[in-house]
Amino acid sequence: MNRVFSSAFALSSLLALSAPVYAELPFPAQLTGKAVPLTAADPDYTRAVVTAAVKPNGMGGVSDALVVRITEDIPVYRMWNGPAKKDARGNTNRLGGWWSYDAPTGVVGGYRSNYEICQGWNDLTWVARCTLKAGAVVAIGPGQSVAPETCGDPTGKENYAANTRDWQLYVDKPWARSAELVCPADTADYEADPTNIAQARTR
Amino acid sequence: MATDDIQQLAAQLRHDFLNRAFGAIRFWRFAVVRPHDQAFELVSVAVEGDRLDLELRHASQAGGTSLMSVWSPAGLSIGPAGVLIGTAARLRFDDNEAWLDGADYRIRTPRGEGGFAVSGAEALTLET
Predict the structure, then answer these.
(1) How distant is the Cα of A50 from the closest Cα of chain B, in angstroms?
(2) What is the ipTM of this complex?
(3) Residue B100 confidence (pLDDT)
(4) Which residues on A lie below 8 Å from B114 (Cβ)?
(5) The pTM is what?
């Protein structure tokens, strides 16, 4: 190894050791000009709560994450159970941690697979469109796989592969971040046509 | 150190985990809710015979409370990542139930009943 190469190697090794966590993930084209990546050294980095978003194989969430600060308001989307379905505590799941910056399209089954959402977790019947405001700090990344045990499908068959194409956006405890995530009244949401979730179901 | 006595276990939960938010609930390997989609807080802890009743509410404080019940819990650990209960005979939350069946655990959900191998999984995980 010559000296120049050796020095370059040493420098690149040093840079690699000090590189931020997001170094291995490409910045998504959809957010170019609308968000900037943050390093772990940024004081706002912890607001994204990456530890909640990134999960091991088979457990959902994202497999790795970029922390970004939104620099221009962007629409974000979430499928949910609709206003009529409430849990045992009387709450809907309209607000939650998991969103996408790509608008939902295609058949609902494809969306479920692309975003690794077990059937027991979400009916995926309604679509909410909210605005992630400039200044918001969130985690984004490719969806992690979900194992049959995690879904709890009694047949043991329901599982989802990791997906590097359709990234997820994690907003930690969105109900406490009304300045960063702004949603219209749920009357602005629509019940999705399961054969084309980009459009409202017709009755 | 793990705590086994159910009254001690309840007291430790009251002391160390009351009002702390957590976003994932697992009965063995079964994620009862989508991990970190919603968040919950422990409001109160009660013991009834061999059953531990954990009263939970949504972390936003919206809505009411509901119970998570754990029968014959043992092996409690509480740390920065949340709560682990190593073993239990049965657990129930909302429409979901799971119970130990030899080396397996079985679950019953609105979709039906099935079974999976325990394979070293903790009976209950509440992950912050």
Answers:
(1) 11
(2) 0.94
(3) 98
(4) 152-156
(5) 0.91
